[in-house]
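Helix-turn-helix domain-containing protein (Shewanella holmiensis), 107 aa
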Amino acid sequence: MKSVTATALAEEIGERLKQARLNRDLTQSEVAQLAGIARKTVLNAEKGKVQLDIMIAILMALDLTQQIDLFLPKQEISPLQLAKLQGKKRQRASGQRRNKDEETPEW
């Protein structure tokens, strides 16, 4: 699938959206109304020309949001990235140093 262009992949996803809509026996207008978008936006999505937030709205209207985990599984943080995020570990606590001459309070 590495030889497929981004445009071709977007068009394929658009076709799949269209087929999902047809499988649910919904018109573009009905999906648009459920998603809160214009019918032309649904048409463009089915051509593979859609913004991510619009695509998610259409997936929600088609009750396909559970498919997102299959499409793009949650990514765990790699040990290398985790080490970079932690940065340098503190060697000692910061704060004011006390003079040895200061009296220790008696409790």
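The longest helix spans residues 6-23. DSSP finds six helices and no strands in the chain. ok done for today
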